[in-house]
């Protein structure tokens, strides 16, 4: 699939075999796509002045979001792996063309697609406010509305590191993102952004590239902070439990990008390489890389606040499909429910499918419930290491022994959940 991603001012005629993507504007014509329509207005409103290459990175991330939505996996030869050719307008095409192989490798790991990127001049610059505001915060944390980022922001504030929290607006989560930011640390400065990716229908829903835009939002904001402008390196906190970050394949059929890699250590290491190559002084921090979700809850610094807000958080992979409620049976829901069991507190979350032990297609018979059950059975029959296989073999993974122990504990939390409901 070919895409030309550039502001509307790039007046090249639309080609029949190329999807024209308007960056930072509206599509303006049938058959076109767009992304980032509101972002420039949001930065103008906040009066932020990010690093130019960080803004170019945002243009790239917006383009990737469109490609990920427009490229139908069902049209690919194997029903999954897609091939993209992206031409993207940026402010510094010479640098980005040099970095194109690294970007392609990073995206290939994230989505298991083939990416070819070429950069052209004419990219949109960040808005230039008449009076720049450089927030004084020394770090940025991603706040999704999920349970992990909630616990992480609470811990950062309790330790005296009051971060500026950045959210990607997702339907059903916007209000709770605002609620969490207000409640933590006496109120955290909060910026909500949206890629507003719009593509011609039909739209692919696998969303394997979604973390690229969330990270780009965090990076752009981080380079706008006063410490960054004064020469410091700014930490960007990605607070995700280690079990979901590595997301080990539960069964032999859940390999590659069939298990999401949104916070996988290999992906984040490659993304950090890209930031370093671009001279962007932002350091990605993953403080819970060796923690299970249950351990994050048990060890959170403010148990009272976490207990009050946790039921409002979102974990479900099908949250919108279930009318903005948790299904209770997908893998993220099972990890969430297992974490509450490990925490030892009542789980007040409402689940569409509560009793996982009920032996029908909607409960114990559901694919994700069966997959967890098969992983538990394989571990019991053949041992943990054989089940784990090559999940930790990626070259950029460090501290393998610690991560291996964490994955064992995480699987144990899932085992306790299945035991509670009598899943067989």
Draw up the topology in text.
Elements: E1 2-6, E2 18-23, E3 33-35, H1 39-46, H2 52-70, E4 83-89, H3 93-111, E5 114-120, E6 140-142, H4 147-158, E7 164-168, H5 174-183, E8 190-193, H6 210-222, H7 226-229, E9 234-237, H8 242-246, H9 265-277, E10 282-285, H10 293-299, H11 303-309, H12 331-343, H13 367-382, H14 384-388, H15 400-421
Task: Report on the architecture of this protein.
- The chain is α/β, with parallel strands linked by helices and 424 residues long.
- The protein folds into three domains: 2-120, no CATH class; 140-285, HUPs (Rossmann fold), CATH 3.40.50.620; 315-421, no CATH class.
- It has helices spanning 39-46, 52-70, 93-111, 147-158, 174-183, 210-222, 226-229, 242-246, 265-277, 293-299, 303-309, 331-343, 367-382, 384-388, 400-421, and strands spanning 2-6, 18-23, 33-35, 83-89, 114-120, 140-142, 164-168, 190-193, 234-237, 282-285.
- Strands 3-2-1-4-5 form a five-stranded parallel sheet. The chain has a five-stranded parallel sheet with strand order 8-7-6-9-10, sandwiched between helices.
- Helix 2 runs antiparallel to helix 6 (210-222) and helix 12 (331-343) crosses helix 15 (400-421).
- The longest helix is centred in the last third of the chain and has 22 residues, at 400-421.
